């Protein structure tokens, strides 16, 4: 009887352990990498003499965030793109589709570095930009920077955004 109880205890332990491991790989931790981007959610705005830039980020589901980004100059939209952050097969990608650029095809940038307040996406094969960085400065501000090389010269553009509202 003691031997049966011992075997039953071992089997129960193994069954519980297997189920806990299965939940870790099939549950919430599966999308842990993209959760680091949760602070992007919201309506972000940047005003300058050149125009007004807006990025509106929202969480779509456990593995995806979506955004629209546009620049308005004197009531005309001079730039428009859609963006998605997606976690696929353990990697996170920033997928951008800019109107009238790249033959209207999406371009993917892979998350190469992340800290709680910094996200770095890169695509060395893209013409410009090859690198996109989002840096959370505070709860209501972030600094976005795009960089790369154009005609052999390093170029960077920065956008200090203020959060107008949460989405």
TrEMBL record:
InterPro entries: DUF6265. PROSITE patterns: PROKAR_LIPOPROTEIN. It comes from the Bacteria. This is DUF6265 family protein. Residues 39-147 form the DUF6265 domain. It comes from Niabella ginsengisoli. It holds the Pfam family DUF6265.
């Amino acid at each position: 009887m003691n031997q049966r109880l011992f075997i039953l205890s071992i089997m129960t332990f193994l069954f519980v352990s297997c189920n806990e491991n299965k939940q870790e790989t099939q549950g919430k931790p599966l999308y842990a990498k993209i959760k680091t981007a949760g602070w992007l959610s919201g309506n972000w705005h940047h005003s300058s003499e050149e125009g007004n830039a807006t990025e509106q980020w929202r969480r779509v589901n456990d593995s995806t965030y979506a955004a629209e980004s546009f620049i308005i100059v004197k009531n005309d939209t001079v730039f428009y793109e859609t963006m998605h952050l997606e976690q696929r097969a353990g990697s996170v990608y920033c997928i951008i589709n800019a109107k009238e650029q790249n033959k209207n095809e999406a371009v993917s940038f892979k998350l190469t570095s992340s800290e709680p307040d910094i996200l770095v996406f890169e695509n060395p094969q893209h013409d410009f930009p090859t690198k996109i960085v989002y840096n959370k400065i505070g709860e209501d501000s972030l600094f976005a920077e795009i960089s790369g090389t154009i005609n052999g010269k390093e170029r960077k553009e920065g956008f200090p955004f203020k959060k107008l509202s949460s989405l």
